[in-house]
Design goal:
Layout: H1 24-37, E1 45-49, H2 51-54, E2 63-68, H3 76-87, E3 94-99, H4 109-117, E4 119-120
Parallel strand pairs: 2-3
Antiparallel strand pairs: 1-2, 1-4
Length: 122
């Protein structure tokens, strides 16, 4: 589906931030946000990335979420604004990063970072 994109395997290791008790609230927030998005968009992939995925979050950390959808237009700034409007009522720390199939390119350093160090949600 996404040629050239290699995903890091995530086991049930103790260092997995999704398994940490302190991140349970963030995961609930992320799931609620993804449920809201799925009312309007088909989501093919979603990742938690950044400080929460790395287990390095603090009280000021935002919640970085990469979302890949074939329904996103090529105007990804417009799509990001739409997603941000959906995110704010849920939690204003959510920072959505939309990708369509064409923009989710493994040669993009951010995509590489997301696929190697992010936590797959969908």
């Amino acid at each position: 589906m996404y040629s050239g994109v290699r995903f890091r395997e995530h086991g049930n290791d103790k260092g997995n931030p999704l398994m940490a008790q302190r991140n349970e609230d963030v995961i609930k927030i992320v799931r609620q946000f993804l449920d809201e998005i799925q009312k309007s968009y088909k989501i093919e992939l979603a990742f938690l990335y950044g400080s929460y995925a790395k287990g390095a979050s603090n009280e000021w950390s935002d919640i970085d979420i990469a979302i890949v959808s074939p329904d996103f237009s090529d105007d990804l700034l417009k799509e990001r604004l739409i997603l941000t409007k959906l995110a704010i009522p849920i939690d204003d720390r959510i920072e959505p990063k939309p990708f369509n199939k064409e923009s989710f390119n493994p040669n993009d350093p951010l995509v590489y970072e997301i696929t190697q160090n992010g936590l797959p949600l969908i």
